[in-house]
Structures are given as C-alpha cells and as structure tokens.
Design brief:
By secondary structure, this protein is α/β, with parallel strands linked by helices. It has helices at about 15-25, 35-40, 50-60, 70-80, 100-110, 125-130, 140-155, 165-195, 200-205, 215-225, 235-250, 255-275, 280-290; strands at about 5-10, 25-30, 45-50, 60-65, 90, 115, 120, 130-135, 155-160. The strands form two sheets. The protein has a six-stranded parallel sheet with strand order 3-2-1-4-5-6, sandwiched between helices. The protein has a three-stranded mixed sheet with strand order 7-8-9. Helix 7 links the parallel strand 8 and strand 9 (about 155-160). Helix 8 crosses helix 11 and helix 11 (about 235-250) packs antiparallel against helix 12. The longest helix has 30 residues, at about 165-195. The chain is elongated. About 45% of the residues are buried.
C-alpha cells in the first residue's frame, strides 16, 4: 500500500468507496466540488485536496467516480489527464460511453500515463459494504497495479479486456437493468389488475423462473408506493439507456427491448418523474391502466 491513491467525486457511490479504501489502510487524498463531504472523510483520516490538479500532483493512482458524461469529460479529460505524468494510473468508475473511455485512454497515453475504464454496479448498499461488481478495461499492467484497491471496493472484480471493454460490460448491465425495470413494472401491474394479490404473486414469481434481482428490488417499492425513497433516480437510467442507444447504433446492432425501455424512461422523465426512484416507471403504466399496484391490506 505504498502508492498514494487519489479519489475524485464523493457522491452516493464515491464516498462509501473512499471510506473502504481508507479503512483498508490506503494513503488517500480526496477532492469533491462539495467540500462538506471532503471535510467529512478528512475527519476520518483522508487528506483533503483543493483541486483536481492537486490530486494529480500528489497521487500515484487517481480514481474518479462522477455522475454523468459531461462531468466526467470535464474533470477527467480536461482537468486531470493534461496533468498526468509518466507511470501514473488514472481510473474512471463512472458510467460513460465507450468513445469517452477511449478518448481518456488516448489522452493518458500521450502523457505516458495509463488509463482504466472501471465502471461499477451494485448501488450504494454494495458500495458501502465493499461488494461492488467492478468491470475493468485497459492495460494489464495498470490493472495489476490497482487490483488490490479494487478488491477492497468490490467482491467481483474482472479485467474484461482492452480499453472500452469495461464500459461495454457496464452498458450491457444497464441494458438489462432498464429492460428488467420495465418488465417488473408491467408484470406487477398485470397481476394487480387481474385481481390476484400482487404481493403473493411477487413472492411466487420471485421463487420461480421469473425471478430477477430487479423484480426483488422494485416490487416492494411498488407495493408500498415508495417512489421517493430514491436509490437511483429514473433520469440516471435514462442517461444510461441513451449511452446504450449510441453504442447499438455504432455497432449496428438491434436492441428492440432497449429501444422500448429508452422510450418509456424518456416519456416518464418528460412527465416530471425523473427525480423519483427507477421503480416509478410503473406510474405512467398505472395511469394508462386506471389501476395501481398496492398491497391488498392497504386498499
């Protein structure tokens, strides 16, 4: 653990990931636009940096976890990578497109540094307990340098292949998440309007071949009408589904399920549901059906 690690972006995912690195004994320096979170983790032992440039100057390995493509390109591509130095490893945990990952890798190579696209899956719960899935693309040498830190943050860590392959794996994951959210919503609504007890149908289906992680996550939110207890906002999934659309167009590969999910998430966001939890994709369906999913004993 002799290398100094920098972490940029202390959001819902980045902050718990940083805490896990700190608890594992890493020499950690952090930076975030909101200084409140910097002060919070600095009180626990991290070093606070005043800027991205300061992180790049002080750290051997720099990790970033940022909310969207525009922020990633501004912070990583425009602020961090021009300050990179030979031998330095820069890692992006954000969900972006493969074009962004490849642009970052090219910018790092120009400076003699190495870049890894290493998006994550698992939500804040798994970020907190260090059991994320981490999908890594980029040079093997860079991956081997950072693998022990990845193991602190994730339970399933895989070097998928060359630059962009980690990002591709994450977008495939998000394609399935988006489609499963739509499927879970329409299944629960169909069960409820049929007159069956939707909670019992959920229990039965989720123990059979219709089982899915997303059904297990979203069905209770629908049954309890808990769309404000946001874990991942609906508009975040719309952003990811848009990146998947770009990837499919570039590869000239049909994604009919993804196309439908994108349209439904877009329409829901246009209706003002973007800040709600992703399970709220059921709300426009309920409006069309004239019926709501809810527990029988709550009616």
């Amino acid at each position: 653990m002799s290398e100094k690690i920098g972490f940029i972006g202390l959001g819902r995912m980045g902050l718990p990931m940083s805490y896990n690195l700190l608890r594992a004994g890493y020499d950690l320096t952090v930076h975030n636009r909101s200084q409140e979170k910097v002060r919070q983790i600095a009180d626990a032992g991290a070093t606070a940096a005043a800027s991205t440039a300061e992180i790049m100057e002080q750290c051997d390995v720099v990790l970033a976890c940022l909310p969207d493509v525009a922020t990633c390109e501004q912070v990583v591509l425009e602020e961090a990578l021009p300050k990179a130095r030979p031998g330095q490893v820069i890692v992006d945990h954000s969900t972006v497109g493969t074009a962004t990952s490849k642009a970052c890798a090219a910018a790092a190579e120009e400076r003699g540094a190495m870049f890894l696209d290493a998006p994550i899956s698992g939500g804040t719960e798994r970020a907190t307990d260090g059991t994320l899935t981490i999908m890594v693309g980029g040079p093997t040498e860079a991956y081997q340098r950072v693998a022990s830190a990845f193991d602190v943050m994730g339970a399933v860590v895989r070097h998928v292949g060359p630059t962009g392959s980690g990002t591709a794996a994450k977008l495939v994951n998000q394609l399935l998440v988006g489609v499963h959210k739509v499927a879970a919503a329409e299944a629960m609504l169909l069960a409820a309007k049929s007159g069956a007890d939707p909670a019992l149908v959920f229990e039965l289906v989720n123990s059979g071949w219709g089982q899915s992680f997303i059904l297990g996550r979203n069905a209770p939110a629908m049954l309890d009408r808990d769309f404000e207890g946001v874990r991942t906002q609906l508009r975040v999934f719309l952003k990811d589904l848009g990146l998947i659309q770009e990837m499919a167009r570039d590869l000239e590969t049909p994604i009919p399920g993804g196309d439908l999910a994108y349209r439904l998430f877009y329409e829901a966001t246009e209706q003002g549901l973007g800040d709600m939890d992703g399970a709220a994709i059921v709300l426009p369906m309920e409006e069309q059906a004239g019926f709501q999913v809810r527990r029988v004993d709550a009616e």
